[in-house]
Design brief:
Structural class: mainly alpha
Number of strands: 2
Largest sheet: 2 strands, antiparallel
Shape: extended
């Protein structure tokens, strides 16, 4: 048949949906003749399917020894791996194909080749059902018996998992490390104890395994055997001499583990062997606490019968009764979910566990367990039963005591009613409601049970509470919210409907919290469409305002919930209602970029007689759209004639666009409105060009210049755009203004500062150099401000070395003095008129000291000494500007003297210092 198909032109390398070729199937089934025929017709002998299996893998996995031999004779790669990293030897060992294993090892297969998880063929042989002979073959061929996988498991661990005690003996006899640990710290003995392999435990102990070695969670092998209810393993481990009350690092003994595991036989064995049932773990819990927490009735019965104290408390003040009342049904349901996928079966399993919890609790109560004992947070067993929804437990506890509802001195922050309502346990809630008088009891934040149930959306709990008369008007102590607010916050429409329908008061729909928010405002803010629809159906006031003057429409536009906004607009909500800052929904739509809403709102607003678009600061929606760069909104606004001229705050929309670098927005404005707006001024006289220069928005700056912005326009303080840029260190703007716009460098502000002064005053070296590059007038280099300071003074004071060098190169006067004048003290001259050199001093006192030192260093000639002495005898009161001028001449004369040959030889560095 194969020959016939090939003769008819069948594709020899055709593959199925898993990419398996005919050669794979022939190899797997052991049809040697077909394999040979296919290969002779050029079938790809190394072909792989989607998971990387070759024909050799297929033959080896199914024990087809003849095919394996044939493929090996053809020279195929013996250690080729699939996508899992497994070789043909791995598969042969996994499937117990000892003949294939023997053939592969004889051919030189790597017996220690790890797969992607680090498992070697020996791991597979140790674990597989029929791998005993394979394991011996591998060991005899040099396989490493102690090699570990990526999770630290050795071949001996694998035998422990599956109870292969004969293979474990083989490994041990060939040097297998008995106490080798995996990544969890478990030895093979831990693993054997965990899975209950008594014979293997016996083999390991006989071979010297350490029974006192800590494993996972610091537990000993005896802990694991007890926890997993393997009484025979416990007996074997105890016979080895292990100290029975040895705790793990959490203080738990093997009796704690047995109580948690729920095996009565283990507990009785441990007790008869001397285990102390009074021992506590590091949290103060006894074995009885563990048994109660897991609802193991027979274990509880055994422990209590032998004398365990039912009212013993742990470090949190909890007794076994607390734990029994709090047995977590949801956790048990998750555990049972592996075996019961059907929801009905899960519910039945849950009911069974709840009955077990009630049985445990009843037994504890019958044995004098005190239900009134409270933990350190003030909660008793009733609180715990309510929190976990155990109806039967609650009924039992309420029969015994009513103290669970006396919260006056309990210290508990929440009542059982709150706990049941918050967690949605309506059956437990109904039990509690039968015993309560005050349904509106509050927690520490003033919230009622109805508030919590509504907040969490527990409809059945809400219904139970309002049917019993719980008030829907009670406000909490923090936000002053009612249950209606609580239900709206999370969009629980069913709860909201129940609350609205129970009241005859029409005003309930508009009840306000501490911020003045109604349920409608919250529903819109959180985007709960169904809740909004219900509230509007109940005629909620769409124009109600909060303490900030905001309506539901304000909130909807800010949060962007389209359907909520549309529903409000259909209710003819007020469009021009202003909040406390004078902002309408139009302002918010423009600010948030909602162009469609803005267009719709504008159409409605313009149809009204009194439509003011300015907020309290004079800003219009156009200001806000430009400030936030919302081009679509700007286009919508500019379609209206009233927005094609600037009104309101003089910091115009163009200023707003420029200051935030929204070039496209600025371009829209300049294109739609008269070009004169390019030079409009705010209340400080600043033009948009000032704003662009201030923020260094070069593209915007160039845009304004293209529209003929006045480059030398000065604001109220006399500063041009160039000055603004220079003072703020905006080098990009300075470059454009100086080089492209040819800004006037001689302009001075009110303090007579030039752009160069301002750049130097803030230490902006790059800006100063850009300006200096265009200055060739020495008078501008030495220009003085109101403080008589030249740019050299300012640059020197700020340590701008490169600028100082450039100024000096351009002829800056080193002897120019500022406004401080001359001071006389103790009949000695000192210079308080600061030259650029003295401007380098950090303060005036230091400058004066430096002046004295410089004066002392000056080499006056004998003939000039008297003149100098006479000069310094002038009184301070007689000093004048003329005297200051004379002093300048005196200094100049001294300078020339210092430059003489004699002076240089005598004091070679004075000239440089001066």
């Amino acid at each position: 048949m194969v020959n016939l198909l090939l003769a008819k032109g069948a594709n020899i390398n055709a593959f199925d949906k898993k990419d398996r070729r005919a050669l794979h199937w022939a190899a797997y089934m052991g049809h040697l003749d077909v394999v040979a025929l296919l290969i002779n017709h050029d079938a790809e002998v190394t072909c792989k399917d989607k998971k990387g299996y070759t024909p050799l893998h297929a033959a080896a996995s199914n024990g087809q020894i003849n095919v394996v031999k044939h493929l090996l004779n053809l020279g195929v790669e013996i250690d080729e791996i699939n996508v899992y990293g497994n070789t043909a030897l791995h598969l042969a060992c996994y499937n117990g194909q000892d003949a294939v294993v023997n053939e592969l090892t004889d051919y030189g297969a790597n017996v220690n080749q790890p797969n992607n998880s680090g498992f070697t063929p020996l791991h597979f042989a140790a674990a597989s059902t029929h791998g005993a002979l394979c394991l011996e073959l591998l060991v005899n061929n040099g396989a490493d018996v102690n090699i570990q996988s990526k999770d630290g498991k050795s071949p001996l661990h694998m035998t422990a998992v599956h109870g292969r005690f004969t293979r474990s003996q083989t490994l041990i006899q060939n040097g297998g490390e008995i106490d080798c640990v995996d990544k969890d710290g478990n030895t093979p003995l831990h693993v054997a104890a965990r899975y209950g392999h008594e014979l293997l435990i016996n083999t390991l102990i006989t071979s010297g395994a350490d029974t006192a070695k800590c494993g996972i969670h610091s537990m000993f092998p005896l802990h694991l055997a007890a926890l997993n209810a393997h009484s025979d393993c416990c007996r074997k481990l105890l016979s080895s001499g292990f100290e029975i009350d040895t705790p793990d690092k959490f203080g738990r003994t093997c009796l704690h583990a047995a109580a948690a595991g729920g095996n009565v036989e283990c507990i009785k064995l441990l007790q008869s062997s001397g285990a102390d049932f009074h021992k506590k773990d590091k949290c103060g819990r006894t074995p009885l606490h563990y048994a109660a927490a897991n609802c193991h009735f027979h274990c509880i019965e055994t422990l209590v019968t032998t004398g365990a104290n039912v009212n013993e408390t742990d470090d949190w003040g909890r007794t076994a009764l607390h734990y029994a009342a709090a047995s977590d049904m949801d956790r048990n349901k998750t555990t049972l979910g592996n075996a019961h996928e059907n929801s009905e079966e899960l519910e039945k399993a849950r009911e069974m566990k709840e009955k077990e919890a009630a049985l445990c609790l009843e037994f504890l109560l019958q044995n004098d367990a005190n239900p009134s004992i409270r933990d350190k947070e003030g909660y008793n067993s009733i609180h715990y039963a309510a929190a976990y929804g155990h109806r039967q437990c609650l009924e039992l506890l309420l029969e015994r005591t009513n103290s669970g509802f006396d919260e006056s001195d309990s210290g508990a922050t929440k009542s059982p009613l709150h706990l049941a309502a918050y967690n949605g346990h309506h059956q437990a809630l109904e039990v509690l409601l039968q015993s309560l008088v005050d349904l509106d009891i509050r927690d520490e934040k003033g919230r009622t049970a109805l508030d919590l149930a509504a907040f969490k959306g527990h409809t059945e709990c809400v219904e139970a509470l309002i049917n019993q008369g719980a008030s829907i008007f009670v406000k909490d102590n923090v936000t002053k919210r009612t249950p209606l607010h609580a239900s709206v916050i999370n969009g629980h429409t069913l709860c909201l409907r129940l609350l609205l329908e129970i009241s005859d008061n029409p005003e309930v729909v508009d009840v306000k919290d501490a911020k003045g928010q109604t349920p409608l405002m919250l529903a819109v803010a959180y985007g709960h469409i169904d809740a909004v629809s219900l509230l509007l159906e109940k005629e909620a006031n769409v124009d109600a305002v909060d303490i900030m003057g905001c309506t539901a429409l304000h909130r909807g536009i800010v949060t962007g919930h389209e359907e909520c906004v549309q529903m409000l607009l259909e209710q003819e909500v007020s469009i021009l209602c202003k909040d406390s800052r004078g902002r309408t929904p139009l302002h918010y739509a423009a600010a948030r970029g909602h162009a469609t809403w803005l267009s719709e709102l504008l159409q409605i607003a313009l149809s009204e007689e009194d439509c003011s678009f300015k907020d309290n600061q004079g800003y219009t929606p156009l200001h806000w759209a430009c400030y936030n760069g919302n081009e679509n909104c700007i286009e919508v606004l500019l379609e209206q004639k009233c927005f094609r001229k600037f009104i309101g705050n003089p910091f115009t929309p163009l200023h707003c666009a420029i200051i935030n670098d929204h070039e496209n927005c600025a371009s829209l404005l300049l294109g739609a409105i008269d070009s004169s707006i390019v030079n409009c001024r705010d209340d400080k006289g600043r033009t948009p060009l000032h704003a662009a220069a201030f923020a260094d928005h070069v593209e915007c700056l160039q845009l304004l210049l293209r529209h003929n912005a006045q480059v030398n326009a000065a604001d109220n303080s006399g500063k041009t755009a160039l000055m603004m840029a220079a003072e703020n260190g905006q080098a990009g703007a300075v470059d454009i203004l100086v080089n492209s716009a040819q800004a006037d460098l001689t302009v001075k502000d009110k303090d007579l500062n030039t752009p160069l002064h301002l750049a130097c005053s803030k230490g902006h070296e790059k800006c100063a150099l850009l300006i200096l590059d265009k200055i060739h007038d020495e008078s501008l280099i030495n220009a003085k401000n109101n403080a008589l300071q030249t740019p050299l003074h300012v640059a020197a004071r700020n340590g701008l070395k490169v600028v100082v060098e450039e100024l000096l190169a351009k002829g800056a006067c080193v002897l120019a003095v500022d406004e401080n004048g001359i001071g006389i003290s103790s009949s000695c001259l000192f210079l308080r008129s600061h030259t650029p050199a003295l401007a380098c001093a950090p303060n005036k006192d230091v400058a004066d000291c430096l002046a004295l030192i410089l004066a002392t260093m000056m080499p006056f000639s004998p003939s000039s000494t008297m003149t100098a002495v006479n000069f310094i005898c002038f009184k301070k009161d007689n000093l004048s500007r003329t005297t200051l001028s004379n002093l300048g001449s005196m200094v100049s004369l001294c300078s020339n003297n210092v430059g003489s040959e004699d002076g240089y030889n005598e004091n070679d560095s004075d000239s440089e210092t001066f």
